[in-house]
Predict the structure.
Amino acid sequence: MTASLTRREALAAGFGTVLLPATLSAQPAAKPAEFKIGVTTFLSGPASVFGVPSRKACEMLVDQINAAGGIAGVPLRATFVDEAPGTDHLVGEFRRLVQSEGVHAMFQSISSGSCLACTPLSRELQKLTILWDCGTQRIFEENRWEYAFRTQGYGTPEILAPLLYLLKKKPDFRTVAVINQDYAWGRDSWELWKAGMDALKPGVRVVAEMFPRFGSTDFSTEITRLLALRPDVILSTSWGGELVTFVRQATERRLHERSTFVLPVAEASLPTLGRSMPEGHIIGTRGDHWNNHPAPANPQLFNEFVTAYRTRFNEWPIYPCHHMAQAIWALKAGVEKAVAAKSGGWPSDLEMANAFRGLTFPTPTSTITLREDGQGLEDQIVGLSSFNDRFPFSVPKEMIQFTGAQVSAPVGQKSTDWLKTLKPDMIASSGRSIG
Amino acid sequence: MRRYEPILALVLAAAMITAAIMAPWLRFVLTIALAKGIAVVGILLLLRAGQVSFGHALYVAFGAYVVAFLAPRLNDAVLLLAAAAVGAGILGLLIGLFVTRYRQIFFGMLNLAMSMVFYSLLEKLYHITHGSDGIRVEVMPVAGQALDRVAYEWSIFGIALALAFTVGLLVRLYLSSPMGEALAGIKTRETRLEFMGVPARGVLLSAYVMSAMLGGIGGAIIAMTSRHVTPLLAYWTSSGELVFIAILGGAGGVLGPFLGAAAFELVRIYAAASFADAWQLILGSVLLLVILFAPGGLWGMAARLLGKGGTR
């Protein structure tokens, strides 16, 4: 009896605490006491291999920025939300953060499905939204968004760069097989690759298209087939634990000796794979932020970031950490630009968002420009897996850097249409060897 | 207790409306809760016959995808709701024809299998369904009225609330009718039912089709509220969620599912807001506490508070 009463009281108390800030949030734009960001990321489930490190990176950078005086003099505060429970929950959480917590900017998400569901909310709730990690090309190619910006590359450059690398380094392949996870990214990335490959090197035979179930732990059937088919190239855009499992099972059966792997999302799995990653295969990192980047634009900042992350969390930063960092650096640059334009006043949500269009902000490795459609142009670096003394895991060698503009579909064009128009002379003209 | 049910329902509805006015984001959460409540009433029907469906998310997802696919052509919330209900009903009839041959764990697992087949189809037919990226649902007119976003959200909330009342009332009538009483007969002793000349399969099938329609309606409202449908709606965890809500709310009365759904959504959102890392643990603990200390669910607890004893 008493237990049920206290629960009811607890529920009522809960209502009270939520209703109070909701009534306070409808005030004109004054300089806030703290700049709140709502971050959606995977804190549970298979994609938490990306989500948890990115959260750590976010917390670390927020601490660093606050120690240095905040953004435009305002300290940052990040609230994290788990993406794992699914769309209806996440959409509700997005609203809660904006309408009840009164966040000033949203950072979302890892999953493309989450991004597609939440980006329209940026317009409805008129809130600055930074897409910090998801890769789907559909966001900015199918719609225009006033409040949403993506501070990193996306599927098209992340697939085209490894493809160009393959065509530059090992142009003689005749057959290709694909083994991708059976969900949107696995299908999309294959479609992009196929469109690009057919335009740049017509006549390559696709010997197998395999889409094992998302979350598979056994690839023996697929590996047997690949061993029998002997494709010259095996593409896999799988990530996380599945990629680790696939590479381990494939190398045990010496698949890597017959075929060249192309693994555009390999970087995040390499620390786990350690020495079991075979050498001489093409690896990508969804950007240019390799831990062994030979010539970052700002070496001091890059080393500081990597060292600080390693010291605090005792692990190497992986690409979601860098993507999170890019989002925060973009936020800093954009908000400070908006505040400067307002000559000291605090900008409204729309003024804040407008400051991001065309914004160029520095990253430790390069700079990123947010195009007029909101898409960021991030450089891509692809290389061959190799080992050296500095790292207990595989890192790239013979790296080639592709600038973001070279490998992204122009504003207003759909990626698959644009990829079909590519000419083979692009292979020689694009990319710059950086050692 | 039955006497108090309508009054309690009105109190609950008033509380929901107040909360939705005071905090706009709660309106969204409560609309979802109402939609899930409607779907869980379907689970409750089957629970009356002692059958647990571990795959009812199939109908919720089907209703949601009906909305997503037909929205460009049949651009009206009322028509889409009807289409989702009818579509889910037909699907329920087809599947019900053979799953109602089975009882207990076989019934539950067959339903689970069906929903996972649908889930896989949604993922595999990538070029039609966009796979895990899902399909977006735009704001649509309601009964011929083009609305702005806030008015639209209020209308969907209102429709969900009105449907919840209608469904609650109809199911109450149904459960006290001979057909509804026969459901309890399936639970206690099916053979006796046959001796009395009541076809047990027919009784269960009609309840199954009804519960499928309720699932479809719930799914359609979810699609119109979250405005983005993904295959996750058909995944077994979503089915589990519905059963969870049914247990949390209690199977004693039709108000139980709505109590359960509101409590579930609120607990989840508060847990996620306060402990982003451990919300699953909190949800699980709440369910364990309910099972251990209030086997009749929230409804049973309310009944005990009113001192009348929750009768079935």
Remarks:
- The radius of gyration of chain B is 19 Å.
